[in-house]
Amino acid sequence: MALKITLDLDLCQGHSVCLGECPEVFDVVESDEGYPQVILLQEAPPPELREKVEKAARYCPNHVITVTEA
Ligand code: SF4
Questions:
Q1: Residue 70 has pLDDT above 80, yes or no
Q2: Residue 9 carries which DSSP code?
Q3: Which ligand 1 atom is nearest residue 59's CA?
Q4: Measuring from atom 2 of ligand 1, which residue has the nearest CA?
Q5: Which domains does the chain have, with CATH numbers?
Q6: N or C terminus: which one in the chain shows less Cβ crowding within 10 Å?
Q7: pLDDT category, 35, cuts 50, 70, 90?
Q8: C-alpha distance from residue 59 to each of 21, 32, 34, 41, 62 (Å)
Q9: Which ligand 1 atom is nearest residue 13's CA?
Q10: Cα(8) to centroid(ligand 1), Å
């Protein structure tokens, strides 16, 4: 089953931990806020990426990323 990722962008401060853990799904780019923020490269990543996506969610210092089943 594919994964569904939800981001709480109000909390994201561009630490890029997510990008380090799973570059297949997360990128960090300049935002309108004037600092970098996360974007999703895949809205519904395949199950093979579950472990990496869950690590990104766990290690994000601001708890921006929520992972559920699609
Ligand atoms: S989602 Fe978390 S780890 Fe990724 S850039 Fe935002 S604050 Fe940093």
A1: no
A2: G
A3: 3
A4: 60
A5: 3-69 (3.30.70.20)
A6: N
A7: very high
A8: 8, 25, 23, 19, 9
A9: 7
A10: 10
- Measured in Å, residue 61 CA sits from the centre of ligand 1 at 7
pTM of the predicted model over 0.90: yes
Torsional sign, CA 36, 49, 56, 11: positive
- Nearest atom in ligand 1 to the alpha carbon of residue 15 is 8
Residue carrying the six token digits 């909390």: 11
Q: State the average pLDDT over residues 2-29.
A: 96
Residue 38 amino acid letter: V
CA 1 / ligand 1 centre spacing (Å):
25
